Amino acid sequence: MAATTVTDSGGVRIITEVIPATDPRAAQLASGSRPPAHAASSFQVRGFRKAQPKALGTIHIFTGIIHVCFGIILTVSEYGTPSIPVASGVFFWLGLLLLVSGSLLVESEKRDNISLVKTCCVVNMGVILSTLVATLVHATAITHNIPGCDTNTPYQLKAEWCFNAGNKVLSNGLDFMFVIFCLLEFCAAVAALAFGYDAVKQHNYTRMEL
To answer: Residue 145, class by beta-carbon neighbours within 10 Å (0-12 exposed, 13-18 middle, 19+ buried)?
Structure first.
């Protein structure tokens, strides 16, 4: 049974009611004092959006398309004597990973879903590692000769294109361009991972408080 006390103070009457824990109204008051779970999740996702995931995702999608397109062109043109980047398949596996990462980042701009943020963090960790590997592959290609121009014996004939210095300059220019792309993709992935990790950490802390 609820206990009620009435206090008069300065012409104001204050009525205080003490509700026992067994009263159904106590459970309603307790549940009403807690913020909804989706509201807490939405707050954390808004923190992640400070990183502008749509812009970061657009960068990944754009560079991913470039990787795949150049991968197709170079694979066809270097058939039989592939360069190190073409032989490693870096254009395709990195390009596809960037397309997945970019799509998730753009989608996270539209949805208040902390699970989507967690997925973005995992995928961007893969992007960070992949861009480091891709940078190493392209840097190695710059230090090597054009495929098919290495001679194992003193009297082995070289292909005609081996004597054209412009081919090596063009090859190095493409590899250098993709090194720059990898650095851009790396920075975008690090930014997404940093803000995403902070949002996930705050979400876990809020859930423990509730």
So the answer is: middle
Cα(189)–Cα(5) distance, integer angstroms? 61
pLDDT in tens, 120-160: 899 999 999 999 999 999 999 888 776 656 555 454 555 55
Task: Give residues with Cβ within 8 angstroms of 53, minimum separation 6.
Answer: 105, 106, 108, 109, 120, 192, 195
Residue 190 structure tokens: 């690090």
Q: What is the spatial distance between Cα 105 and Cα 138, in angstroms, rounded to a whole number?
A: 26
pTM for the predicted model, two decimal places: 0.69
How many Å apart are CA 61 and CA 67, to the nearest integer? 10
pLDDT digits (tens, 9 = 90+) for 55-83: 999 999 999 999 999 999 999 987 877 88
3-state secondary structure of 2: coil
Contact 134, 94 (CB under 8 A): yes
Residue 92 CA to residue 69 CA, distance in Å, equals: 9
The residues facing 14 across adjacent strands are 7
